């Protein structure tokens, strides 16, 4: 049968089409051969070149942008432009990119006025499939170089490191660049900030190589959007990326280190240094990880070229600072969003603000007169702001003036350093005087110094009330966004109040009060990184169960690493702007200092400060040559006196508890008493107080209720103290208490035991002991929250010890929970083991109702006293001698702590009984009286030189304060090592506290007038 005429026509048309397409393919292939550099054909496989040619044939139909997706790789073709890299990489946010290379045609693409850019991308893999091939002789040579630079490096460690590097990375770098990249890697193992070296190619025109290459290694780098962020930074500085190769060492662990080499060139074929301010570019590049990039600051100011990326980061830091100042004026009006809007609404004013900062602090453009002129004009412009919307204009004026106040009162900053992990600013506290409300109601006294720190997902403060001061560093880590928004409103005020409380607490020691607070917000990066990991694991063939297990482990490790990284950033940036030579000159380069005096800061452990971090802080201080050395932080696990190990805070709390019980007519050694505690057996103060109850009052103490992060527990007959003590020694929270040991009426709420009935309905397990035995009950979310909020307050007991919980946990809004059905407080006495747990108004309400309260500045003061003696001993002896004498020193310190706690408790009760004045008010008066005497004495002592004769009464007073081991066995070192300013502070504090404790609150002649008489009295 003859073929159908129509079929013949189709075949003929097909042959013609194939012929025509073949001719077009040949045409485009030949153009590619002519137009692309030789390196393109060396690096791109033949199969991929075929794909590229096919896509070039129809690229005009795709708006000149074509993406070819391969297995764990991609090829992107587009017309070349300055933002080409940005346009390419924005589509690969959820891919880790280990190799990126762009090739640009030498000729314009047909029928266009632009060259074509062809970019190849290779993505990271959960399991590297490309076999590792590298010449053995080169590997041996590489190992020898590495071991020469790092003598402690073993063959096994090198082989493990080498095998974890991907083949493309090894092939792409010259031997010298590979050596350099490994040098960066070994530096990055012990540093958070980006480790990098820059190499310039002066012969780039003849070799065709990029004019600039950066080799870097960076700990814990994100994969999500990371190269895209780099591309945006590069493009903003008029640079282009010629090639990027990278390898991840130990990816998705807390030890993850990214090694990357970036070849850069200027736009329009110019050298990088001819088009970009290289130091400014590097400053932005190596801090890129720590600050937001995709926000309105970027959109409105940075992307438009009004300000540089580094100044965008400065503004983000200023936003948080201004919000902390204005939230007390109106929390609903001065929200973070409205603060941001106020700066962005008038970009010209905000860019001038950044320029003023530059004039004051950029060491290469310093001009104070120009700064003052700019500031005055900016103030006038802000005052004249008038858009016709009065409410908005008023808000924006207030916000902008606070931003300018921040710059004006900053005395030094690390902003112009070339490499750091967080911004740090030292401020003159007088900025508080410029707050647009009566600051005395919120901040009654001006501190001596305020530091502000802004880093990755975190910001915080350090506040001290005297030059020589001491206080703990607390890290607040909300897990949920709602909780974070609430905590975000109170960072500065909480730090101030804790430092202020500490100032009164420190009345017995030479140091004034200080506090550090760091708020670590929930990181959105964790979820995006988990998504990248999930995609890679899925592509590698892992099961859903295996994927979930790996992601859970990743999130757990990363949350802990984020905590440690934030704390290290806080410490590093703080030390940078206080570490100085004896004459007060800062050691750090590129820091303009308007303070010009030495600053020696002393920290202590607080919430979320683990032993490993305490030791790291001490080691870092020594390594940097900071004068306090390892005494920079107290409570060290070995060369220090760890608060939890020795129970130093709860020792004082227990003294106050005993005194309170005695005042109530209860002898704890023989009479039964009930007690409730906020805080769990794994905590410092709560856990050690449980230990005290178990060891000192095993037959009389009835611990009826506790609450901690794991849940809540109640037993009307008292929990088993032996079991609770075991939980303390095992560092386990109360949820591990065996519910079968409860007595009838008791319950255990276990927050970790949860089940979901729907995605939005979760229930929590409560064990309840009834007359018929143990019953299991699943509570709704609202029922669980009600118990957690009210349980510890509604339970009746003789003594309540708040030993854990956020500030203002008991306040005017929930104080009714602390009263029983007869209107009486549910505790007869409260010993505040935790700081600021009860608000001032709640304290007042309870005291009016007859509740006896030992305030935090009295009740838990022994912790900081211990730290002060630890530092005094460390400064005198050094680490080695300290360890030799540690056992004796600890016993002497514990004895002193008991004595000082008992002295104040006795005075408080005596004055309260005689006057009827509430004890919280008396606590304040005692601190005020002691500090007043001490300051009078310091004013006198500062004007004289201390005598060298150790028999002089002043020196005898100093020695009398010191521990027996120091004054008897190490007197020469004690006198030599302790600075005179420290000695004078000791003398003043020692006399002041003893006068008040021995003579009472009503004794107040001129302290200087009778000083000779006082020195003759035994102290």
What can you tell me about this protein's structure?
With 1019 residues, the chain is an alpha+beta fold. It has five domains: 1-34; 36-133 and 163-286, no CATH class; 310-599, no CATH class; 666-860, 3-Layer(aba) Sandwich (Rossmann fold), CATH 3.40.50.720; 920-1019, no CATH class. The chain is globular and about 120 Å long. It has a nine-stranded mixed sheet, sandwiched between helices. The chain has an eight-stranded antiparallel sheet with strand order 1-2-4-3-7-8-6-5, with helices on both faces. Strands 9-10-11-12-14-13-15 form a seven-stranded mixed sheet, sandwiched between helices. 48% of the residues lie in helices and 17% in strands. The mean pLDDT is 93.
Secondary structure elements and their pairing?
Elements: H1 5-35, H2 38-43, H3 46-57, E1 65-70, E2 73-79, H4 84-89, E3 97-108, E4 115-123, H5 136-149, H6 155-163, H7 167-172, H8 175-188, E5 195-200, H9 204-207, E6 212-219, H10 226-236, E7 239-249, E8 257-266, H11 272-275, H12 278-285, H13 296-302, H14 309-326, H15 336-344, H16 347-361, H17 368-383, H18 390-409, E9 410-413, E10 422-427, H19 439-442, E11 449-455, E12 458-464, E13 469-476, H20 481-488, H21 491-505, E14 512-520, H22 524-539, H23 544-576, E15 602-605, H24 611-623, H25 643-646, H26 648-663, E16 673-678, H27 684-696, E17 701-708, E18 711-714, H28 721-729, E19 747-758, E20 761-770, E21 773-779, H29 781-794, E22 797-802, E23 827-831, H30 840-848, E24 852-854, H31 856-859, H32 862-915, H33 919-941, H34 953-961, H35 964-969, H36 971-977, H37 980-999, H38 1011-1016
Helix pairs in contact: 1-3, 5-8, 13-14, 14-15, 14-18, 15-18, 16-17, 16-18, 17-18, 22-23, 23-24, 26-27, 26-32, 27-28, 32-33, 32-36, 33-37, 34-37
